[in-house]
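Lab notebook: predicted structure, single chain.

Context: the supervisor wants predicted structures on file for every construct in the current expression panel, including those that have not yet been purified. This is the next one on the list. No modifications to the sequence; it matches the entry in the shared construct table.
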Amino acid sequence: MSTLFQSIHNKYVFQRRIQVLSDEVAAVLNDSKTVLDIGCGDGTISKLSADKKGGGVKFSGIDVMARPTCAIDFKLFDGHTIPHADNAFDASMFIDVLHHLNHVKEIIAEAKRVSSKYIIIKDHLYKNSFDYDTLKFMDWVGNKPHSVEVIYNFKKEEFWMQLFEELGLEVITFNKHIPLYPFPFSALFGRQLHFVALLKVKK
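Prediction complete. Output recorded below exactly as produced.
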């Protein structure tokens, strides 16, 4: 990836992304005081979300690989079994993690186990092959510099809704208007290809 392209991506996509997504997370935290960030990366989004809530929320993170630094408390895990007790957190969240996995239902069930109130999910949607190919390109660009494996396991909205019902998760909000990109990039890379869902855990 060229230096110029990396510079443009960092300025117009990456930096805006962490600001927008931390805004979105902060907006749906509700009464959660402890949150587990599953697949937390460097923890930047969690840290910014906590700051935007005035510091009243404590985030902890887990991931399958460690970054050089992490902005929140962090543990390695095997990608399947979350190393925390039942109901250890008010909420858990996945930010652009689930489309990298083949065991989506199982890991969300694990998140439900350790969450007493909510699950927050930011991921992707597609309706047709053009949407899918656009998401593939975005995923490759966003993850190649970090050596993150990409398998392009994108799902349609119907999949998500059925899955949430099967897992006993009540959809409180399902926002498909996430302003991740400025115009004119939003015309191609926006288009309701992204969602943030707030799900209530029903035990």
